[in-house]
Known about the structure:
Elements: H1 6-11, E1 18-20, H2 32-40, E2 48-52, H3 55-66, H4 70-73, E3 79-81, E4 85-89, E5 92-98, E6 107-111, E7 114-116, H5 138-148, E8 156-158, E9 174-176, H6 177-183, H7 193-196, H8 199-203, E10 223-226, E11 235-238
Parallel strand pairs: 1-2, 2-3, 7-8
Antiparallel strand pairs: 4-5, 5-6, 6-7, 8-9, 10-11
Amino acid sequence: MTFSSPEQGLGKGYHVQRILETHAHADHLTAASYLQARLSGTQTNKPAIGIGKRIGQVQTLFGHRYGVAQHEREGVFDKLFEDDEAFSIGNIQAIAIHLPGHTPDHLGYMIGDNVFCGDSLFHVDIGTARCDFPGGSASNLYRSGRRLLSLPGHVKIWTGHDYPPDGRTDPVPWTTVQDHRAHNKHLKDGIAEDEADGVGAQDVACAIEIGRPFMVNEEQAHELIIPCVNGNQPVRLFA
Protein backbone atom coordinates (compact mmCIF):
# COMPACT_ATOMS: atom_id res chain seq x y z
CA MET A 1 0.00 0.00 0.00
CA THR A 2 1.44 3.37 -1.01
CA PHE A 3 0.42 6.95 -0.29
CA SER A 4 1.19 10.27 -1.94
CA SER A 5 1.34 12.16 1.38
CA PRO A 6 1.99 11.39 5.07
CA GLU A 7 -1.56 12.41 5.92
CA GLN A 8 -3.04 9.63 3.80
CA GLY A 9 -1.20 7.00 5.79
CA LEU A 10 -2.02 8.58 9.11
CA GLY A 11 -5.65 8.80 8.06
CA LYS A 12 -5.68 5.00 7.96
CA GLY A 13 -4.53 4.88 11.56
CA TYR A 14 -1.00 3.68 10.80
CA HIS A 15 1.83 4.50 13.18
CA VAL A 16 5.08 4.97 11.25
CA GLN A 17 8.11 3.62 13.12
CA ARG A 18 10.81 3.78 10.44
CA ILE A 19 11.65 5.58 7.22
CA LEU A 20 13.95 3.29 5.24
CA GLU A 21 16.39 4.58 2.64
CA THR A 22 17.86 2.09 0.16
CA HIS A 23 20.69 4.36 -1.04
CA ALA A 24 21.77 7.87 -1.92
CA HIS A 25 23.55 9.13 -5.02
CA ALA A 26 24.06 11.91 -7.51
CA ASP A 27 20.68 12.50 -9.12
CA HIS A 28 18.14 12.10 -6.31
CA LEU A 29 17.25 14.33 -3.37
CA THR A 30 15.67 12.46 -0.48
CA ALA A 31 12.41 13.53 1.16
CA ALA A 32 13.08 11.48 4.31
CA SER A 33 13.61 14.49 6.59
CA TYR A 34 10.46 16.14 5.23
CA LEU A 35 8.43 12.99 5.90
CA GLN A 36 9.94 12.66 9.35
CA ALA A 37 9.01 16.25 10.23
CA ARG A 38 5.44 15.89 8.95
CA LEU A 39 4.91 12.61 10.76
CA SER A 40 6.45 13.89 13.99
CA GLY A 41 3.79 16.57 14.17
CA THR A 42 0.91 14.10 14.05
CA GLN A 43 2.06 11.03 16.00
CA THR A 44 3.62 10.49 19.40
CA ASN A 45 7.18 9.72 18.32
CA LYS A 46 9.61 10.65 15.58
CA PRO A 47 10.13 7.84 13.05
CA ALA A 48 13.79 6.88 12.68
CA ILE A 49 15.48 7.34 9.29
CA GLY A 50 17.62 4.32 8.46
CA ILE A 51 20.19 3.61 5.73
CA GLY A 52 23.21 1.34 5.21
CA LYS A 53 26.42 1.99 7.14
CA ARG A 54 28.36 2.62 3.90
CA ILE A 55 26.50 5.88 3.34
CA GLY A 56 29.61 7.47 4.84
CA GLN A 57 31.56 6.62 1.67
CA VAL A 58 28.99 8.43 -0.47
CA GLN A 59 28.84 11.40 1.91
CA THR A 60 32.62 11.75 1.82
CA LEU A 61 32.74 11.61 -1.99
CA PHE A 62 30.07 14.22 -2.57
CA GLY A 63 31.05 16.24 0.47
CA HIS A 64 34.47 16.74 -1.06
CA ARG A 65 33.04 17.43 -4.51
CA TYR A 66 30.61 20.09 -3.28
CA GLY A 67 32.50 21.49 -0.31
CA VAL A 68 30.20 20.14 2.42
CA ALA A 69 32.07 20.12 5.73
CA GLN A 70 32.32 16.84 7.60
CA HIS A 71 30.42 18.07 10.65
CA GLU A 72 27.47 18.99 8.41
CA ARG A 73 27.06 15.43 7.15
CA GLU A 74 27.56 13.56 10.41
CA GLY A 75 24.59 12.30 12.40
CA VAL A 76 22.02 13.06 9.71
CA PHE A 77 20.64 9.49 9.85
CA ASP A 78 19.15 7.94 12.96
CA LYS A 79 20.12 4.35 12.15
CA LEU A 80 23.02 2.92 10.14
CA PHE A 81 22.30 -0.71 9.31
CA GLU A 82 25.01 -3.35 9.34
CA ASP A 83 25.12 -5.76 6.40
CA ASP A 84 22.24 -8.25 6.70
CA GLU A 85 21.12 -6.83 10.04
CA ALA A 86 17.81 -8.11 11.35
CA PHE A 87 15.32 -5.62 12.77
CA SER A 88 11.62 -5.36 13.47
CA ILE A 89 8.75 -3.19 12.33
CA GLY A 90 6.11 -3.72 14.98
CA ASN A 91 5.72 -7.50 15.10
CA ILE A 92 7.15 -7.99 11.61
CA GLN A 93 10.72 -9.22 11.19
CA ALA A 94 12.90 -7.64 8.50
CA ILE A 95 16.47 -7.85 7.19
CA ALA A 96 18.63 -5.08 5.69
CA ILE A 97 20.38 -6.80 2.76
CA HIS A 98 23.56 -5.22 1.38
CA LEU A 99 23.15 -5.01 -2.42
CA PRO A 100 26.14 -3.04 -3.78
CA GLY A 101 26.65 -2.30 -7.45
CA HIS A 102 24.40 0.63 -8.32
CA THR A 103 26.04 2.44 -5.39
CA PRO A 104 28.38 1.05 -2.70
CA ASP A 105 25.95 1.83 0.14
CA HIS A 106 22.91 0.20 -1.45
CA LEU A 107 20.52 -1.84 0.70
CA GLY A 108 17.41 -3.85 0.05
CA TYR A 109 14.87 -4.59 2.77
CA MET A 110 13.37 -8.05 3.07
CA ILE A 111 10.10 -7.82 4.97
CA GLY A 112 8.20 -11.09 5.12
CA ASP A 113 8.03 -12.49 1.59
CA ASN A 114 8.79 -9.12 0.01
CA VAL A 115 12.07 -7.45 -0.90
CA PHE A 116 12.15 -3.70 -1.53
CA CYS A 117 15.28 -3.71 -3.65
CA GLY A 118 15.69 -0.02 -4.55
CA ASP A 119 17.78 0.37 -7.71
CA SER A 120 19.42 -3.06 -7.86
CA LEU A 121 16.93 -5.06 -9.93
CA PHE A 122 14.42 -3.54 -12.29
CA HIS A 123 11.59 -5.48 -13.90
CA VAL A 124 12.30 -8.43 -16.16
CA ASP A 125 11.95 -6.48 -19.42
CA ILE A 126 14.44 -3.84 -18.19
CA GLY A 127 16.98 -5.95 -16.32
CA THR A 128 19.22 -4.19 -13.83
CA ALA A 129 19.90 -0.62 -12.78
CA ARG A 130 22.89 1.37 -14.05
CA CYS A 131 26.27 0.99 -12.39
CA ASP A 132 28.22 4.01 -13.67
CA PHE A 133 27.71 6.27 -10.65
CA PRO A 134 30.74 6.98 -8.43
CA GLY A 135 31.47 3.78 -6.51
CA GLY A 136 29.29 1.68 -8.80
CA SER A 137 30.40 -1.77 -9.95
CA ALA A 138 29.01 -4.02 -12.69
CA SER A 139 30.36 -7.15 -11.02
CA ASN A 140 28.87 -6.21 -7.65
CA LEU A 141 25.54 -5.40 -9.29
CA TYR A 142 25.47 -8.80 -10.98
CA ARG A 143 26.26 -10.61 -7.73
CA SER A 144 23.69 -8.59 -5.79
CA GLY A 145 21.05 -9.41 -8.38
CA ARG A 146 21.87 -13.10 -8.37
CA ARG A 147 21.75 -13.03 -4.58
CA LEU A 148 18.17 -11.81 -4.77
CA LEU A 149 17.37 -14.48 -7.34
CA SER A 150 18.60 -17.17 -4.93
CA LEU A 151 15.60 -16.45 -2.70
CA PRO A 152 12.52 -18.71 -2.88
CA GLY A 153 10.63 -18.34 -6.14
CA HIS A 154 7.44 -16.93 -4.59
CA VAL A 155 9.20 -13.92 -3.00
CA LYS A 156 8.08 -10.60 -4.49
CA ILE A 157 10.72 -8.12 -5.69
CA TRP A 158 9.56 -4.49 -5.46
CA THR A 159 11.80 -2.19 -7.48
CA GLY A 160 12.52 1.50 -7.00
CA HIS A 161 11.75 2.58 -10.57
CA ASP A 162 9.89 1.38 -13.62
CA TYR A 163 10.87 2.51 -17.11
CA PRO A 164 8.34 0.71 -19.34
CA PRO A 165 9.98 -0.25 -22.65
CA ASP A 166 8.25 -0.06 -26.01
CA GLY A 167 5.31 -2.41 -26.05
CA ARG A 168 4.43 -2.05 -22.35
CA THR A 169 2.31 0.87 -21.18
CA ASP A 170 1.22 -0.17 -17.68
CA PRO A 171 3.55 0.10 -14.67
CA VAL A 172 4.46 -3.11 -12.83
CA PRO A 173 4.62 -2.89 -9.02
CA TRP A 174 6.43 -6.18 -8.35
CA THR A 175 7.75 -9.35 -9.96
CA THR A 176 8.47 -12.71 -8.35
CA VAL A 177 11.93 -14.22 -8.02
CA GLN A 178 10.74 -17.09 -10.21
CA ASP A 179 9.80 -14.69 -13.01
CA HIS A 180 13.16 -12.90 -12.75
CA ARG A 181 15.05 -16.18 -12.97
CA ALA A 182 13.12 -17.12 -16.09
CA HIS A 183 12.89 -13.77 -17.88
CA ASN A 184 15.16 -11.00 -16.50
CA LYS A 185 17.03 -9.77 -19.58
CA HIS A 186 20.30 -9.22 -17.71
CA LEU A 187 20.25 -11.77 -14.88
CA LYS A 188 18.04 -14.72 -15.80
CA ASP A 189 19.38 -18.21 -15.27
CA GLY A 190 22.09 -19.02 -17.78
CA ILE A 191 23.56 -15.50 -18.12
CA ALA A 192 27.13 -15.41 -16.81
CA GLU A 193 28.69 -12.41 -15.10
CA ASP A 194 30.90 -11.50 -18.07
CA GLU A 195 27.85 -11.50 -20.36
CA ALA A 196 25.93 -9.12 -18.08
CA ASP A 197 28.86 -6.73 -17.44
CA GLY A 198 27.91 -3.15 -18.33
CA VAL A 199 24.56 -3.76 -19.99
CA GLY A 200 22.58 -1.85 -17.35
CA ALA A 201 24.35 1.42 -18.12
CA GLN A 202 23.75 0.96 -21.85
CA ASP A 203 20.04 0.20 -21.63
CA VAL A 204 18.89 2.77 -19.05
CA ALA A 205 18.89 6.29 -20.47
CA CYS A 206 20.64 9.05 -18.52
CA ALA A 207 18.02 11.73 -17.85
CA ILE A 208 20.41 14.30 -16.38
CA GLU A 209 24.11 14.92 -16.08
CA ILE A 210 25.62 12.80 -13.32
CA GLY A 211 26.63 14.81 -10.27
CA ARG A 212 24.14 17.67 -10.71
CA PRO A 213 21.25 17.31 -8.24
CA PHE A 214 18.32 19.56 -9.07
CA MET A 215 14.80 20.51 -8.13
CA VAL A 216 12.31 21.78 -10.69
CA ASN A 217 9.19 23.89 -10.30
CA GLU A 218 7.18 23.19 -13.44
CA GLU A 219 5.56 26.61 -13.55
CA GLN A 220 8.68 28.72 -13.26
CA ALA A 221 12.32 27.74 -12.79
CA HIS A 222 15.08 30.01 -11.51
CA GLU A 223 18.65 28.74 -11.45
CA LEU A 224 20.61 29.16 -8.22
CA ILE A 225 24.34 28.45 -8.46
CA ILE A 226 26.05 27.68 -5.15
CA PRO A 227 29.85 28.01 -5.48
CA CYS A 228 32.18 25.49 -3.84
CA VAL A 229 34.96 26.82 -1.66
CA ASN A 230 37.30 23.98 -2.65
CA GLY A 231 37.20 24.79 -6.36
CA ASN A 232 35.11 21.81 -7.43
CA GLN A 233 32.02 22.05 -9.61
CA PRO A 234 29.19 24.17 -8.18
CA VAL A 235 25.80 22.83 -7.23
CA ARG A 236 22.97 24.01 -9.47
CA LEU A 237 19.49 24.08 -7.97
CA PHE A 238 16.39 24.95 -10.00
CA ALA A 239 13.45 26.17 -7.95
